[in-house]
Design a protein that fits this description.
Blueprint: H1 2-32, E1 37-42, E2 47-50, H2 52-58, H3 62-65, H4 70-73, H5 83-90, E3 94-104, E4 107-120, E5 123-132, H6 135-153, H7 179-192, E6 198-202, H8 208-218, E7 226-230, H9 236-244, E8 245-246, E9 257-258, H10 260-264, E10 268-272, H11 279-291, E11 293-295, E12 302-304, E13 308-313, H12 317-322, H13 328-334, E14 337-341, H14 350-366, E15 372-373, H15 375-383, H16 389-402, E16 410-411, H17 418-435, H18 442-460, H19 465-472, H20 476-485
Parallel strand pairs: 6-13, 6-14, 7-10, 10-13, 15-16
Antiparallel strand pairs: 1-2, 1-5, 3-4, 4-5, 8-9, 11-12
Length: 495
């Protein structure tokens, strides 16, 4: 009987342990084998869980993270900048963000994540984040997009094909199979499903609105309106009423009219050339975005701001801030995520894929039968810098197609307007003189010189970005932007 009692006592102990310790061990195993990254901090901000998926996402080791304060682990000099500490203090979760908190040898690590407080008996005892690993999904989406691109290249969309939501373009309409464009499309698809405001940075004619519409159509707002406006095309005295709306009698001729922010509803408002908006108007827009309410001019009723803002600029944003053309606080409000759209010259052989598309489009419109391009024309096009980018290329192809004989199957340089060819030849002449026989374009050479200067300055300053920026005479943000644009990777000993 005593032996049986002893066995029962041991069993009860195991049972009691199962209800607590074994359960904790099981939960730790489960968390460690999840596909999503999990990071847990205690009420003091110390990391106590950093699972295997987070290791894979951020290319870090749990042994280097667990036990550290989160602001130290992620190299925040001010602990109040840590979102975990903000959630711990406020008790309010931060959901569906797409942002870089970590850097590795390949650059910033962007991930979709949400951060939640853990509250027991009215006290917040910890904060945890769940980060989505989208690598497999992005791979599949990329394959699907490539298949759709191939399909849509076989047909030409008519210019009046407008979707009910006010858009014309999707990712399938973006022509080009260069690695830089494939990566950009994957990035854009990743941010399409979240609510962050997006800033598109790219030269004139690179297709910023095409990307804006594609992002809208790819995400969960695709059934809502897409409304675009060029901030440079509207006079200053009309811009405020255009965006915010008016009530009758606010000024002579004013009617009850909703602004574009209201009209966009839960959809997307695209603000092109946002840096050309007057600075005082930028301040008013910032207030609306911060408070998430808009009031019509002359009115007293507030309307909630539900739309997502996608904005675009065609210059270095940090240079614009430095020059006083763009408010820094507005930039950070608009740039929840920043996408850099490369110029045509950086897109490898996309120029000829695009040309093929524009030729097919012109064949359909003009009743021509062009299939090929002469080698001479290709050589001129290849060595031209294309300052107007895709828009200039489309105009160039159309100009030659107009002068091409109906029965001619070749697109020929001799059929281009003389002023265009002279301009391109002059550009090519400078190109050959500067390159001294190399195969680089002028833009590539300039980028190469800039990259060399930045790398030399970084090396001489032991990769301290702040000191390097000071030496080069630019702001720290501007230098980081140029490093990303030129593909300069941060080293382990970054500042």
């Amino acid at each position: 009987m005593e032996n049986r009692s002893s066995v029962n006592a041991i069993s009860n102990k195991r049972l009691n342990r199962s209800n607590y310790e074994d359960k904790l061990l099981c939960l730790e195993k489960i968390i460690d084998n999840l596909d999503d990254g999990v990071l847990l901090t205690d009420k003091n901000g110390k990391i106590i869980i950093y699972n295997r998926a987070m290791e894979e996402l951020e290319k870090r080791k749990a042994s280097d993270m667990v036990g550290k304060f989160i602001w130290e682990a992620y190299e925040y000099f001010d602990k109040n900048k840590s979102e975990h500490m903000r959630v711990l203090k406020s008790g309010s979760p931060i959901t569906k963000r797409y942002k870089a908190h970590a850097y590795n040898e390949d650059g910033p690590v962007y991930k979709l994540y949400s951060t939640f407080p853990i509250e027991i008996d009215g006290e917040i005892i910890g904060v945890y984040s769940i980060s989505k690993n989208e690598t497999r999904l992005q791979f599949l989406l990329s394959e699907i997009t490539e298949m759709k691109n191939e399909f849509f290249r076989q047909r030409i969309l008519k210019s009046d094909d407008i979707n009910p939501n006010g858009t014309k373009f999707t990712f399938s309409d973006i022509i080009g199979s260069s690695n830089v464009m494939k990566k950009l499309i994957q990035e854009a698809q990743s941010v399409a499903w979240i609510d962050n405001n997006i800033l598109l940075v790219g030269d004139t004619g690179t297709g910023k609105e095409v990307f804006a519409q594609s992002i809208h159509n790819y995400g969960n707002r695709n059934s809502e309106p897409f409304i675009g406006v060029n901030c440079a095309s509207i006079p200053e005295n009309l811009l405020e009423s255009t965006l915010f709306g008016t009530v009758r009698g606010a000024y002579t001729g004013a009617l009850d009219s909703p602004g574009l922010i209201e009209q966009a509803g839960s959809g997307t408002l695209f603000l092109d050339e946002i840096h050309n908006m007057p600075v005082n108007m930028q301040a008013k827009l910032l207030r609306v975005l911060q408070e998430r309410i808009v009031r019509r001019i002359g009115g007293s009723q507030n309307y909630p701001v539900k739309c997502r803002i996608i904005s675009a600029i065609n210059e270095d944003p940090f240079q614009l801030i430095e020059n006083g053309q763009l408010r820094q606080d507005l930039y950070y409000r608009l740039a929840g995520y920043c996408l850099y759209i490369p110029p045509l010259i950086e897109r490898e052989n996309d120029i000829f894929e695009l040309s093929e598309y524009f030729i097919k489009k012109s064949n359909l419109i003009m009743g021509k039968n062009v299939i090929y391009m002469t080698d001479r024309l290709k050589e001129i096009m290849k060595n031209y810098s294309w300052p107007g980018n895709v828009r200039e290329l489309e105009h160039f192809i159309a100009s030659i197609m107009i002068r091409t004989n109906v029965n001619d199957k070749y697109l020929r340089a001799k059929n281009a307007p003389k002023y265009l060819i002279n301009m391109m030849k002059a550009n090519c002449g400078n190109y050959y003189e500067i390159q001294s026989g190399s195969n680089l374009t002028l833009q590539e050479k300039l980028d190469s010189i800039e990259k060399k200067m930045i790398l030399e300055a970084l090396d001489s300053n032991l990769w301290n970005v702040t000191k390097t920026a000071k030496e080069l005479g630019v702001t720290r943000q501007s230098l980081i932007y140029r490093m990303r644009k030129l593909g300069i990777k941060r080293k382990e000993n970054r500042d």
